[in-house]
Amino acid sequence: MGGCASTKRQDENEPAGNFKVNIVSADFPARQKLASTSNLVIRVRNEGSTTVPDIAMTVDGFDKRKNNPQLADAQRSQFVINGKPQTIGGVPESKDQAPKGCETVYVSTWACGKLKPHAVKTFTWNVTAIEGGPYKISYRVAAGLDGKAKVVASNGATLSGSFAGNVSSKPPNVKVSDKDGKTVVRGTP
Questions:
Q1: What are the DSSP calls for 74-93, one per residue?
Q2: Which of 23, 51, 53, 100 is the most exposed place for a label (fewest CB within 10 A)?
Q3: What pLDDT, in 10s, does the model give residues 23-70?
Q4: What pLDDT is attached to residue 1?
Q5: Using CA atoms, how far apart are residues 78 and 131, in angstroms rounded to an integer?
Q6: Are β-strands 184-186 and 56-60 bridged in parallel, bridged antiparallel, or unpaired?
Q7: 85 close to 69: Cβ distance less than 8 angstroms
Q8: Which among 27, 73, 59 has a CA at the least distance from the CA of 165?
Q9: Helix (H, G, I), strand (E, B) or coil at 71
């Protein structure tokens, strides 16, 4: 009977302590258009003299909740993280264009590993707006995934933030070419 039970704690290898981190920049366009791609980019710097154990970012708001009791799942995407074609194990796949190598099993959380003193980490998500209307996307930085390692701002600033804006409900002026049935033609009447 092995496998399921474990005496190890999930957080046993995470060092406890406070780690000085600052948000260097955070960018996401306030005005978006349907079917247009954009990048959400957040840069953080380790301002301390010790290595951050596992610099992480949680982003909420790519989805929004619909108030409709007839929906089985009220969460609906407003933005999708775009995929990038690649081969995984010899099989064609699509990999999210989210912070590369930072995937976790935590919902909406990416952890990119150790961040050395004075080093900068850039988190980038390539997304497409798929529903019009106002949006609010919030983010927060963490020094680890298990709660023992904490981020503290060296300048007193918060280590979270948000973006607010609007996605135009006007559909893009495009169509699929009559010639090959594949090519997207922009600016058609």
A1: -EEESEEEPEEEEEETTEEE
A2: 100
A3: 999 999 999 999 899 999 999 999 999 999 999 999 999 988 778 787
A4: 47
A5: 5
A6: unpaired
A7: no
A8: 27
A9: coil
Candidate from 32-46, 82-96, 118-132, 147-161 with smallest mean pLDDT: 82-96
CB 29 within 8 A of CB 38: yes
Token readout for 107 is 């919902």
Residue 73 DSSP label? -
For tokens 């912070």, name the residue.
99
Instruction: Identify the CA nearest to 39 among candidates 141, 131, 122, 160.
Output: 122
Strand segments (E) across the chain: 17-27, 31-33, 37-46, 56-60, 63-65, 75-77, 79-81, 83-88, 91-96, 109-111, 120-129, 133-142, 149-152, 160-168, 174-176, 184-186
Q: Using alpha carbons, select from 24, 18, 21 the residue that is nearest to residue 156.
A: 21
For the chain, how many residues are written?
Answer: 189
Distance of CA 62 to the CA centre of its chain: 8
CA dihedral of 100, 105, 108, 112, whole degrees rounded to 10: -40
DSSP at 22: E
Return the DSSP state at 168. Answer: E
- Least confidently predicted of 31-35, 100-104, 143-147, 183-187: 183-187
Residue 174: what pLDDT? 75
